[in-house]
Amino acid sequence: MASKLMTRKTAVIVLILAVAGAGVAWWYTHRAPVDGASASASTGGARQGGGRNGANPNRVQPVTVVAAQKRDIRLIVNAIGNIAAVNTAIVRTKADGELKAIYFKEGQPVQAGQVLAQIDPRSFQIALSQAQGTLARDQAQLKNAEIDLQRYRDLVEKQAAPKQQMDTQEALVQQLHGTVLSDQAAVDNAKLQLSYTRVVAPIAGLAGLKQADLGNIVHSSDTNGLVTITQTQPAAIVFAVPDARLDKLRQQLKNAVPLRVEAWDREQKSMLAEGSVANTDNTIDVTTGTIRVKALFANKDNALFPNQFVNVRLQLDTMKDALAVPTAAVQRGAMGNFVYVVGEGGVVALRPVTTLATDGDWVGVKGELKPGEQLVTDGADRLRDGGKVEVIAASARPGAGDEPRSGRRHKGGGASGSASAAGAASVPGSASASASVPAQASAAEARK
Fold it and tell me: Is 128 found in the same domain as 211?
């Protein structure tokens, strides 16, 4: 009986070991292809990411192109300028008194000689009347003295009066002449003071904010005056250029070549006005190595405002019939600047270039290029020398780098998904196999 029990236990143990071995063997045999798939996916992903920015160098890349061409390239110097009024006048009253009227509107243009304000003129009119009365009195005295002088001259000729009396009368007439001249000057001064009660604009320009209100007592010594007028037509822009450009600048001015200056807004999206260089400063700023330049603008539409900051583009010269390429076509690397030229069969070739001057969207270059050659302007970040491309329209070109990344994500995801699916199938399988061993052991115990 004991021997039979030992035999049954031995059989159960052998059965359990056999089932466990079968489960382990099944798990290893089914996992090997999954590891191979993962390795293959990893190898494929590595091969796919071997190009620039993860792109496949053997793949035909979509690009847009623009032809190189001969065109005039302007030599532009960029700077930041400050708009200054050609003339600025603080309008102060020349007569003290009560402000009775204001005839200008704040922020509106005024003309030279235009009446801006009126000061109470009554005291000045009274002073004028007094001066005119004194003048009239002295003029009458002078006229009477001249009549007496003529009478004395007649008597002296007839020897009816002494000559000394005639001489005294002549002196009195001269004295009264001086008095009348002094009175006339007093009248003119009174008229001038009266005219000062009408405040007029000394220059044409834009009126600022008023500095006094109706009813205020204003004085000629007031610091802020009544209003400030700035002459904005023409307007001046002062900006600084590097001293390295000074020789070319002075040469152009010496030859009376008009140097065009453009004023652009802060975002450099729209041009505000065009003008020309008027003159330069007489010294170079040693701290910045620049020299100040003044340009004048007609400013007919008042687009330029005093003390406004603008972006300035000074055209120093023009390169005639220069070889030009789009700025987007110029790439920069360790070797310097270069472009990709699309040749026959869609094969691109790397050509080094030397940039000369930038004019908007075009760059003047030197290099082994010919007008008409197609240059890659969009999609160059995924290219290499000798790669193949497909020229497409810019609007139809897919986003740079989106397709290669999505391709890798799709392929990698598929490989990982297969591995995960295989892993998910294998793990439960082995668990089931392990679970079947105790089940079979329980059945064997029941049979015992």
Answer: yes
Residues 174 and 116 in one domain: yes
pTM, full prediction? 0.56
Q: How many CB atoms lie within 10 A of CB 104?
A: 21
Tokens 């400050």 sit at which residue?
Answer: 82
Are the beta carbons of 52 and 383 closer than 8 angstroms?
yes
Q: Are 306 and 89 within 8 A, CB to CB?
A: no
Asked whether the predicted pLDDT for residue 351 surpasses 70, the reply is yes
For 363-399, the pLDDT digits (tens) are: 888 888 888 888 888 877 778 888 888 788 543 333 3
Peptide bond into 398 cis (omega under 30): no
- Assign 3-state DSSP to the chain and report helix, strand, coil percentages, each to 5: 40, 35, 25
* Residue 51 pLDDT greater than 80, yes or no: no
60 and 389 in contact (C-beta within 8 Å)?
Answer: yes
Q: What CATH number does the domain containing 116 carry?
A: 1.10.287.470
Give the H/E segment covering residue 230: strand 227-242
